[in-house]
Write a structure and sequence with these properties.
Elements (H helix, E strand, L loop, with lengths): L11 E6 L5 E3 L3 E10 L5 E8 L7 H14 L6 E5 L6 H8 L3 E5 L5 H18 L1
Parallel strand pairs: 1-5, 5-6
Antiparallel strand pairs: 1-3, 2-3, 3-4
């Protein structure tokens, strides 16, 4: 099982879906929220709201997330963890273009990292509803 203590800051990042169920808005429809996190610190660099009809953020948003994360850290990571069955095209292609190795893992292996963020997001959205 993966754990934050196995990593140094900026050694590995994780892209994941922050929400369990779509976020609904009356004006703009339903969204998923995709986030990028540092594996060692579990710091979330940023998140993007993406229409549920889209499997992952568009290229412009992926580039923005990676650029924003790099500005906060000292460098790009060696590894980007992606949950199996998610982020099939844009995220892995852009990461590899930047020299980042993409490693696909079962989402359960990422729960140690992303579980608290998901729980907090769920609580926040339930209060807002």
């Amino acid at each position: 099982m993966l754990h934050p203590s196995q990593f140094q800051v900026d050694e590995a990042w994780i892209a994941f879906r922050l929400n369990d169920v779509p976020v609904h808005t009356e004006q703009d429809g339903s969204f998923n929220v995709f986030a990028l996190m540092d594996a060692a610190s579990c710091f979330i660099f940023g998140a993007e709201f993406v229409a549920v009809s889209e499997a992952e953020p568009p290229l412009s948003e992926v580039k923005r997330l990676l650029k924003s994360a790099q500005k906060r850290g000292s460098k790009l990571p060696a590894t980007l963890f992606l949950p199996r069955g998610q982020f099939e095209a844009i995220f892995p292609r852009e990461a590899e273009r930047r020299g980042i190795s993409v490693v696909r893992v079962d989402e359960r292996e990422l729960l140690t990292f992303i579980g608290e963020a998901r729980h907090g997001f769920r609580e926040h959205t339930e209060r807002e509803a």
